[in-house]
Design a protein that fits this description.
By secondary structure, the chain is an alpha+beta fold. The chain contains eleven helices and twelve strands. The N terminus is likely disordered. The structure holds alpha-D-galactopyranose (GLA). The site of alpha-D-galactopyranose has 11 residues, from α5.
Length: about 375
């Protein structure tokens, strides 16, 4: 049996404002001047498609990261996390930082590059988005930090400018990520998933079906991921870009299903598998958005399982515990009509499970006990409530 690490989960749906301000006062012996927040997300389908100009279908979660802050009149910033107990003292002018504080420093750097006069701060970060769970906690940190600086300076960014600035900040921190996570954190609408075209950056909002129709769970396995510490994400992105150059297209978005087989002879096997994943995933994502809009849980579930198989077999970013959960779901799918897949970058993290809302409690019980008895793997299934 492997231990489950979902550090930082607060009770379901917890709203944190009051406490965050009090904790700030306690930590810094003064009142905060700004409170900023941003949600985490779960991606229902469409992974490793965003940096290929493709489609994604994320849902902002009712789990968020908050920063209480005040400008500091000394030459350094103090940045604390109540979740991990980390405390950093650094100058936001130094262009770098340690631990989670480096994301705040990177956002400050990008704002200064726009000509903003960014103050040093006292800041307290509090979050119920678990770190390393693939739920976009670092994007939430960057977006909340950008909002904090907006409030402290009285200046503002358009939501799209903010998303792009936060993407650049993440790149500075070592992850060449796409735009999905920070776009969701800056453009989410309550109760809606979002079909995002990552080329045009147009979002179509898809209202979530009634709770009786569809239930979503976040599947927690024991494996955490650390994107910025691994070259695996960057290496997948490089393979995709190399393949696009060889195929003479701007991005893999431009490869059609019809062109896919003829691409095989021009590419290495690794490149071809990446292309096949992206091309088929884009198609699945568009179909899944239709199914979600229509409340067709059976089709959504089937597409999710196919997506996982593609991320496992072709893109090779899944991990054994999640593969085992999806295999269980697959074996029982005809009876139960539900689906599951990994979500986000992979290499550990979380999955998402979709099922009919009216049988959600039973399915949760069945999957958890099957996982424990057949896989020897303690998994967690937490309801994924929309933002
Ligand atoms: C991470 C990145 C996103 C996206 C996903 C995979 O979450 O930050 O841009 O590429 O992985 O879909």
């Amino acid at each position: 049996m492997v231990g489950v690490r979902m550090d930082g989960w607060a009770p379901e749906g917890a709203r944190m404002h009051g406490n965050t301000l009090q904790l700030f006062r306690h930590a810094f012996h003064r009142d905060a001047a700004a409170l900023a927040s941003a949600p985490g997300r779960i991606n229902l389908i469409g992974d490793h498609t965003d940096y290929n100009d493709g489609f994604v279908l994320p849902l902002a979660l009712n789990r968020q990261l908050e920063i209480a802050a005040a400008s500091s009149d000394i030459a350094s910033s103090r940045i604390h996390s109540t979740n991990t107990g980390e405390r950093y003292t650094l100058s936001l002018r130094s262009e770098s930082g340690e631990g989670f504080a480096r994301y705040v420093a990177a956002v400050a750097y990008e704002l200064r590059a726009l000509g903003w006069d960014v103050p040093e701060v006292d800041a307290l970060v509090r979050s119920d988005i678990p770190v390393g769970a693939g739920l976009a906690s670092s994007a939430a940190l960057c977006v909340a930090a950008a909002t904090m600086f907006e409030k402290l300076t009285g200046r503002s960014l358009l939501p799209l400018e903010k998303a792009k600035l936060c993407q650049r900040a993440e790149h500075r921190c070592g992850t060449p990520c796409g735009i999905m996570d920070m776009f969701v954190a800056t453009h989410a609408r309550p109760g809606c998933a979002m079909l995002l075209d990552c080329r045009s950056l147009e979002a179509r909002y898809v209202p979530m079906p009634a709770k009786q129709t569809l239930a979503l769970f976040i599947v927690g396995t024991s494996a955490q991921h650390a994107l910025a510490d691994e070259g695996a994400y960057a290496s997948r992105r490089r393979l995709c870009e190399q393949a696009a150059v060889k195929l003479g297209v701007n991005a893999l978005r431009d490869v059609t299903t019809a062109k896919l087989e003829s691409a095989r002879s021009l590419l290495t096997d690794d490149e071809f598998r990446c292309v096949r994943h992206v091309v088929t995933e884009n198609d699945r994502t568009l179909r899944a958005a239709e199914a979600l809009g229509a409340g067709d849980v059976a089709t959504l579930g089937r597409l999710m399982v196919e997506s996982h198989e593609s991320l496992r077999g072709d893109f090779r970013v899944s991990w054994p515990a999640m593969d085992a959960v999806v295999a269980l779901v697959r074996a029982n799918q005809p009876d139960l009509g539900y689906g599951a897949r990994m979500t986000g970058a992979g290499f550990g993290g979380s999955g998402v499970l979709a099922c009919r809302g009216d049988v959600a409690a039973d399915i949760r019980q069945i999957v958890m006990s099957l996982a424990a008895s057949r896989l020897g793997e303690a998994i967690t299934l937490e309801r994924a409530e929309p933002f």
